[in-house]
Design a protein that fits this description.
With 215 residues, the chain is α/β, with parallel strands linked by helices. The protein contains 7 helices and 5 strands; from the N terminus they run αβββααβαβααα.
């Protein structure tokens, strides 16, 4: 007999997974600007399959006194001062994003959100720094636990590069669209869902009652 895990709260010990990708104006979380953020919440259907839910995307205005590295802009092709970006402040973006995450988290009866990203230490370090600058109190994310799709795909298919892992898993990936926070977040969410659902498809989840692996 199997335990039935058809609620998202039961899959990750009441953690609510949220996929995030950011683009920045450099690699220093304290002085380089956060320029773009994309967030995708997840849901579980009645059969226990993980799927994408809501998508939120913001262009961010560089914070006052921030340093803009030209090399980074050449890489991500962002013009921080282009009015067509319709950028908003860090505070406005994060406040709205966190409100949505908290609503989704509560509706799924989860106690804490967990950040999912490809090499999440980079993304989360910039987000934490922005939270400090904006004096935001309702950070929904666990302070140190994250889910890393680079690690998960390395374990599952032996590949840690996002584009290559997606292709191995049968997902489309357009390198010309990469390094956009929205595109990379969508692909990361697709990869995460595919990996988690693969584990279920292989019969490794739900865990069989009173059965342990001894190898």
């Amino acid at each position: 007999m199997h335990f039935q895990y058809n609620n998202l709260q039961e899959r990750f010990r009441k953690f609510f997974p949220v996929v995030i990708d950011i683009e920045t104006a450099g690699f220093n979380k304290k002085i380089n600007a956060l320029l773009e953020i994309a967030v995708i919440t997840l849901k579980m259907d009645k059969n226990g399959w993980i799927k994408k839910s809501k998508t939120i995307h913001y262009h961010i205005t560089p914070f006052s006194g921030s340093l803009i590295e030209i090399k980074s802009l050449l890489f991500n092709k962002i013009d921080p001062f282009n009015p067509l970006r319709q950028a908003v402040s860090e505070h406005e973006a994060l406040t709205f994003i966190f409100d949505i995450i908290n609503q989704e988290m509560q509706s799924n009866k989860c106690k804490k959100s967990i950040l999912v990203a490809h090499n999440p230490q980079f993304d989360y370090s910039f987000i934490k720094e922005a939270i400090k600058r904006c004096n935001i109190k309702n950070n929904p994310f666990h302070q140190f636990v994250t889910f890393d799709t680079a690690t998960l795909s390395g374990f599952a298919v032996g590949e840690t590069v996002l584009s290559k892992a997606c292709k191995i898993m049968g997902l489309c990936f357009d390198n010309k669209k990469a390094h956009s926070a929205l595109y990379d977040a969508i692909q990361t969410a697709n990869l995460f869902c595919k990996l988690i659902n693969l584990w279920k498809k292989l019969g490794k989840w739900p865990i069989k009652k009173n059965k342990f692996i001894n190898k």
